[in-house]
Specification:
The complex is a heterodimer of chains A (204) and B (218).
Chain A: E1 2-11, E2 14-24, E3 29-33, H1 40-48, E4 55-59, E5 65-68, H2 80-90, H3 97-102, H4 118-130, E6 136-140, H5 148-163, E7 167-171, E8 182-185, H6 195-201
Parallel strand pairs in A: 3-7, 3-8, 5-6, 6-7
Antiparallel strand pairs in A: 1-2, 1-4
Chain B: H1 2-13, H2 19-37, H3 41-62, H4 66-73, H5 76-82, H6 87-113, H7 124-149, H8 156-182, H9 188-217
Helix pairs in contact in B: 1-6, 2-3, 2-6, 3-6, 3-7, 3-8, 6-7, 6-9, 7-8, 7-9, 8-9
Classes of the chains: A alpha/beta (204), B mainly alpha (218).
């Protein structure tokens, strides 16, 4: 269960969102939407515990979430298998073959990750989620540089994760075809201009 | 943790990993010194401990910015922060990997190239002992500096300015052990102080490094 209540977050010291509240329970996906710069990435990083919130509470088990950011965290001199095996070991797992299979990476398994195309790298970055064994997936723009076929692979992967009782929180601009995913538009939560301005107005 | 150590060692020895960088720099400095100061055997053997210590320290400094910069650039550091590994363990393993790829080769190369500086036979033991004891401190202190400057583009200059003053005690006592060993004096006092600096750094600095890394990842 992920519960966010009355969250206020800042990017670079400037508040970007306030009063954000939502819940994601088992088997559910929440798609976060909003224009560029509204604070989607900041929101996801705050929930993942990478930065503190200004105000409000995030109720989440930090040992049950896996995060995928804009960068895939792939080492270009290691092979696809070595990259995945490393993350599997970090998360205490051992079997990487389902992850390779889901994203059709078996044919590339021994290739150095530096020689992969952008879309293949992204697939490798997403395959990493399957070796974490974590329940809550936090994904920031997961479909960047994926072709339609790979997007289909990804949404099938999300669907089976949700069917298995998993949770997902996504920031994306495209339609993934997740039937019962809830959507949250962040535009109404845009932080109001700093109260300092209001203070100044009284003297004008 | 072992997985992270093995990955870092593997990355270091593959193309572009910078494994030989510190070692090559060390060799270049020591080979060039006799040309620069002249072939006077007595002078060379008296400055040998200091030159070798200085070379080792600068070679260590040279490879510091790679400790976190590459992981920060490709996003691995964010992912490691969200992983089950505690941040303190991550920085400790990173420091250990740096020592294994920089400090240990320097210590092993020292007996071979000390000959170039005409180091007398009785100086070898204390020189190698002091380097073996002191280089872990250089790696741990350097990891702290690298954590402070992670995310700064071309942060090498700032890193050197931050780390060099912290290296001074290690250099003073390390070179003192080597110098005393060479002249046949008792080395136990500087040796104990050097060991104390190393143990203190290993015990305390990972917590500081982890704290600044968390702040820098925000």
């Amino acid at each position: 269960m992920l519960k966010v209540s009355d969250l206020q977050i800042a990017r670079g010291g400037v508040p970007v969102l306030q009063g954000v509240s939502f819940e994601v329970s088992s088997g559910q996906a929440l798609v976060v939407r909003g224009p560029n710069g509204i604070g989607k990435t900041t929101l996801l990083r705050t929930i993942a515990g990478l930065q503190p919130a200004l105000d409000g509470a995030v109720d989440v088990d930090p040992d049950d979430l896996a995060y995928v950011g804009h960068a895939d965290g792939i080492k270009s001199t290691l092979s696809v298998t070595e990259n995945l095996t490393f993350w599997a070991q970090v998360f205490g797992q051992s079997d990487i073959s389902p992850a390779l299979q889901t994203y059709q990476l078996e044919g590339l398994a021994d290739r150095p990750a530096g020689l992969l195309s952008a879309g293949q790298k992204r697939r490798l970055g997403l395959a990493r989620l399957l070796v974490t064994g974590r329940n809550l997936w936090i994904l920031d723009e997961p479909t960047v540089s994926l072709d339609t076929n790979a997007v289909e692979m990804f949404s099938a992967c999300i669907r089976s994760h949700l069917a298995g009782g998993g949770k997902a929180l996504l920031a994306t601009h495209i339609d993934l075809g997740l039937e019962d995913a809830k959507e949250l538009d962040l535009s109404p939560f845009k932080a109001k201009p700093m109260s300092v301005n209001a203070f100044d107005e009284a003297f004008l | 943790m072992i997985a992270l150590l093995l990955r870092d060692l593997r990355l270091a020895i593959r193309a572009g990993g910078g494994f030989g960088l510190g070692l090559a720099f060390f060799l270049i400095v020591v080979v060039l010194v006799p040309f620069a100061v002249g072939p006077e055997a007595g002078l060379l053997s008296s400055i040998a401990p200091g030159i070798l210590w200085l070379g080792a320290l600068l070679a260590c400094l040279l490879s510091l910015d790679r400790i976190f910069a590459l992981d920060w650039e490709d996003g691995s550091l964010d992912l490691l922060a969200v992983s089950p590994l505690p941040m303190e363990a991550v920085v400790s393993v990173k420091a250990l990997a740096h020592w294994l790829t920089t400090g240990v080769p320097l210590v092993l190369a020292t007996p071979l190239i000390a000959v170039l500086l005409n180091l007398p036979g009785e100086g070898f033991r204390s020189l190698i002992l002091s380097l073996a004891l002191g280089t872990p401190a250089l790696s741990v202190i350097g990891t702290f500096g690298a954590a402070l400057t992670v995310g700064i583009k071309r942060g090498g200059l700032l890193l050197s300015l931050l780390v060099l003053p912290l290296y001074v005690p290690t250099l003073i006592f390390g070179a003192e052990v080597a110098r005393r060993g060479l002249s046949g004096q008792d080395t136990s006092t500087p040796l104990l102080l050097l060991a104390g600096i190393t143990c203190g750094a290993i015990a305390l600095l990972p917590f500081a490094s982890a704290a600044v890394l968390r702040v820098n990842l925000r």
